Structure formats: C-alpha cells, structure tokens
Amino acid sequence: MLIQRVFLSILAVVAVPAVLVVYMFLSEKGLIKSKRKSFTDRIRPLLWLLPALLLISGILIYPVINTVVLSFMSANSTEFVGLKNFAYIFAEKEMLIVLRNNALWVVFFTLLTVTLGLLIAVLTDRVKYESVAKAFIFLPMAISFVAAGVIWKFMYEFRPIGTPQIGTVNAILTGLISDFKPQAWLSNRSQNNWALIIVGVWMWTGFAMVILSAALKGIPYQLVEAARIDGANEFNIFFRIILPLMKNTVVVVTTTLVINVLKIFDIVYVMTNGNLGTEVIANRMYKEMFTYRNFGRASALAVLLLVVIIPVMLINIRRLKEGGARG
Amino acid sequence: MVKRKGTEIVKLIAARIPLHLVIIAITAIWFLPSLGLFISSFRPQHLILNTGWWKAFEWPLRFTLENYKRVLTTANMDRSFFNSLMIAVPSTVVPILIAAYAAYAFSWMKFRGRILLFLFIVGLLVVPIQMTLIPILRIYNKLGLTGTYVGIWIAHSAYGMPLSVYLLRNFIGELPGEMFESAFIDGASHFDIFFRLVLPTSVPAIASLSIFQFMWVWNDLLVALVYLGGTPDVAPMTVTISNLVNSYGGGWHLLTSAAFISMILPLIIFFSLQKYFVRGILAGSVKG
User: How large is the ipTM?
Assistant: First the structure.
C-alpha cells in the first residue's frame, strides 16, 4: 500500500514532466515539418500554452463561474432563489457577527502588522545585528497557521486562580501584576477575537518588515543626513521625510495584508473553530458546506470574498505599476 | 571622522542602549512562543500539564523523547508526515514545467491577444480559493478523486498556475533578446532554445517559485481539508494536527511534539535557503 503510493508520487514527479517534454518535442517536430509558416506561427503559441490553459480552465475558470451561479441557487442547488442567500448574509444576526469579525481582522490586524513591521524595520536599520534580529521576526512566516495555532493555544492556556499557570501569557501577567486574574483568553467573548488577531500579527509582521525594510534602504542616505545637519530631530525625519517616501510601499504592504486577512481561515479553525463569536467568512463558508450542506449560502460567501478582494487588488496593482514597491 | 574623547564615546554608546534593549525585547517576544513549544515537546506529560515550560531547566532536568514516540506511533503523525511529502513534492514539481511553457510563449512568441490573455491569467490571482471549492468537490466526487493524492495534486498545480506564469514570464521576458536571435540563426528550434537556454538560465526564479509553492502546499490546511478531509489515511500533517487539537484539547504533550514535527522541514528550508525563501514568500504573497 505504502509502496504503491510512493510509486504513484514518483510517477507523478518523473512521468508528468517526461510526458510534457515528449508532448512539446512531438509538437515542435510536427510544426517544423509543416510547410505553411503562417499556420505554424499561429498554432505554435497555442501548443505551448495548452497545458496551462487546460488546468486553469478546469480548476479555476469553470468553478468560479459555477460558484457565481450556485450563489443564486437553493441549498442543494436545485432551484433559483435570486438574492436570498445574499440577503441572508446581510440580515441574519449570526452572519452580522461574522462580517463584524472580518472587519475587526481587516482593520486591526492590518494596522498592527504594518505599524510593527515599520517600527522593527526602522529600529533594526540602526544596528549591526540587523539580519539576525530580522530572521527571528520573519521565522513565523515559515510555519503553518496550524502550527502557529497550536503554539498560541499553548501560550493562552488557562488554569484556575491558585494553580500554577502553564500558559505563558497568564503566567507573565499574574507574575507582573499582583491582583491580575488569569483569563481564558480564547473563551471570553470580549477578548477572544483580539487573541486570535494577535496570532495573525505574530505571523505576518515579518512579511511587512522585510518589504518595508527594503524600501527604507532605498531612501538616499544624503537626504536623511542633510535633514540631520539642519537640526531636524529623528521624529520629524521619520514622519516628514522617510514615511512620505515610503508611501507607495506602505500601500502595497497594506493591500496585500488586507487581501490575505480577508481569507483568513486556519487560525480560527484550529484555535476556536469559529465558536464563541469568533467566526469569519471563510470559516462560516466551510461550515455551510460541510455542516449545514447549504451550498447556496456557501457560494454566496465565496462570491462576497471575491467582490471585496477585487477593488483591493486593483489598488495593489496600480501601486505596483507606479513602481513604488521596488525600493 | 573627528576624534572624540573617551567620555563622549561612552555617552554615545549609552545613548544607544535603549535602542538595543527595545530590539532585543521585540526579538525575544517573537521567539518566545516557538521556544515554549519546542522545550515543552521534550517534557514528560505530567510536567507539561502542571508546570510552566520555563521551569524545564530546574534541577533535576527531565527531558524525554516519549512525546515524539507517542505522537508518531499512536496519533498517525508518521503517516501524515509521509502524506505531506507525497502531496507537496508532486504539487511543486508538476506545475513548474507547465507554467514555464506558458511563460516562454508569452515572452518570445507573437500572437494575437497575447497581452490580454496574459493579463487575464494574472488577474486570476484575485480569485480566492473558496470560489473554486464547491464545484471542484462535486466534480471530484463524481470522478472518485476526493480523498486521493491525484485530486489534490491537480488542484494545487492549478492554484499555483497564475502566480507561476506571472513570475516566470517576468523572468524569462527579461532575458536578453540577442541570446535568442543568435540561437535561431544557428538553426536551433524553440524546443532546443527552451530546454538548453531558457530553463537553465531560469534556475534562480524557479528556485524561489518552488520554495514558495512547496511551503504553500506543505502548510495548507483548507485545500487538504476539503478534498482529503474525510480520509484520515491520506491526510497531511496540518489536517491531522487540527484533528488532534479537537480530540485532545489539553493533550499538550502530543500537540507540542506534533506541531514541531510539522515545522522541522520548513525551518530547515528557511535556514538553509533564506534568500530564495524570502524572495519566494514576498513574490507569492497575494496568491489565491
């Protein structure tokens, strides 16, 4: 059984590329033999693009169209229900909580991540061990959201008052503040969304930091030095000179983070499974699919994600075109 | 440099102490969570559950590999590690050649609608994976591809396609045109040029792209959950760990070691190929 699977994988890794090479070899051979040059010039690009186009049409284009159609259909996709699924999303109390949580994530995750990323980029720029410090901050980008979820569930672990706390957060807070009551961070409705957002910030700050740091290094040294000689303090230099020059990069980082956080799923799935008022769009969609079997609503949620992401992506692309992210 | 007196130098260094303290504090805070997990994974069960991980270094030291042994033998982590590899390697290798073909056509062949088609494919980057789940799941159910490696390979290959075509086109399109002209004059075919010139010179771009795609698939939960979720036999580590969290909420001896096992390979890649790794992550940050 195991051997068969290894064999299958090796087959995929070796045979698929081999087939692709043979395919192109034969295509080119056929094209070269053909006498009609105008015909070969037209058909050649198509042959080179064909495998990619097939994959994209089957796994991306067709499903997207189909999902849009399904979002106007009933739970089991048998009858047309118009905008009912969308009306449900924007009217039902449960769903409004979902939308609120996504809004919380978008605003506070993005704000915190960009601010911290910028702060760390600026600070580490002034020391010799910059690359080591940055590696530590970037490290969480390497691990999965699932592992991060486990790490932070352990950080937030709660034990009743009087027993030794094994969760780092409660242990530090009870140690520092004498009358602090240990908190069940992930169950308490007034805190749990914030607790989850912090996990996201911990993971993504390194991303913001690396891009912003590259842009920072692109700012001409003489400009900052000239301001210093004129007697400007570091605070003014940052807000009047450095930040305006980095504006485009900040926008690109912000939009990229917004696009990613809109689709956030894993952290919530692992840490609270969307219970106790922490559900977000992607988790709700998963639940509609597999728990409630309501494919109409699930599709409507997916369409909502797409509709919200498109404008953000357009801003991102425009800024990239202006060349702001090169730094 | 103007020569400074000793006391001035001391003052300058002293003025920088707060900066160092802030940076060291931030770095420590960022590292603390992973360190806690790592140390805990080697502590005996009753100690993890009753004392904080920072007490691990109190005498007598009691570290153990028991958690790893348990999680590998009883919680299916050995099979899941194997599955993660079996899923991630083909999902990384297969799409690259396909994307490179397309990128080559977009870069060095003239045809009508070339720019439009390219922009359309890049535009697909905005599509959240959620938009594709239901229709593909239905097709897979009909074809018997749910719960199989083949199904998830195809899905990941396609999901990686817009980004791969975009990145490789940017790279291949920047190669010097004279290189191609002289090759054509020497009578080389597109096939020769692609495999002898384009592919070998694109190795840096392919390296960054492969690392990104591999890490993306390795760390993915949603796609695996939807297409393989119901079949523990083929589940990768992310799915198995999230199931462990549900069933052993407080089983920290198992959860910490399981999470660390899933982190080993990404950490090795991170430390050994940092340059490509960072490049890949940055390039792929807007993917599906």
Answer: 0.90
